[in-house]
Inverse folding.
């Protein structure tokens, strides 16, 4: 059994609801970390456990993107990830955005790569999603420049993805990519 599990899975395995409620009381051995998702430990959840919980909450078709996906692809050093886990989900998904999760519906699903058993967006999409959701222009520039300098992404690939995707939050990434293209000529 894994340490992150949906309440529905426990019930399907024969664990009564009242037992789940008892174990999730303050001081109990389990905790609810998202609606319908439990951590079978009293310790604070790690970032990896929070990512798995967010995926369980979001449901089928959800994909990790942003800084967590870039780290899964081995990109370091990166700024500390956004406190929220950034996921992409199919457009038909109807879930509330809890405080710990950015659940972004998309009609343009990314190419999915499995890393440690988790579905993550390919590096180009992940880098742009991370940059578009970071309010700090210097961190946006750093993320994109690092992704290009390490060979994880290309300026041409990032530019093509940026042009194909949402224009929201794209001004700084667009100027950063123009600067990187000029520097690499």
């Amino acid at each position: 059994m894994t340490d992150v599990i949906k309440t529905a899975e426990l019930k399907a395995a024969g664990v009564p609801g009242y037992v789940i409620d008892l174990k999730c009381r303050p001081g109990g051995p389990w905790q609810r970390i998202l609606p319908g998702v439990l951590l079978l430990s009293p310790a604070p959840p790690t970032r990896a456990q929070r990512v798995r919980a967010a995926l369980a909450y979001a449901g089928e078709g959800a994909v990790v993107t942003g800084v967590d996906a870039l780290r899964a692809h081995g990109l370091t050093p990166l700024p500390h990830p956004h406190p929220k886990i950034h996921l992409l989900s199919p457009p038909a998904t109807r879930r509330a955005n809890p405080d710990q999760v950015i659940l972004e519906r998309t009609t343009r699903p990314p190419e999915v790569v499995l890393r440690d058993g988790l579905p993550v967006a390919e590096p180009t999409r992940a880098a742009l999603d991370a940059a578009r959701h970071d309010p700090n222009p210097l961190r946006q520039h750093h993320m994109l420049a690092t992704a290009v300098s390490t060979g994880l992404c290309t300026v041409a690939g990032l530019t093509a993805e940026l042009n194909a995707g949402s224009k929201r939050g794209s001004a700084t990434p667009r100027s950063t990519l123009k600067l990187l293209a000029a520097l690499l000529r």
The first strand starts at residue 4 and ends at 6. The beta strands are 4-6, 31-34, 37-39, 63-64, 85-89, 101-105, 112-115, 118-121. The two ends are 52 Å apart (CA to CA).
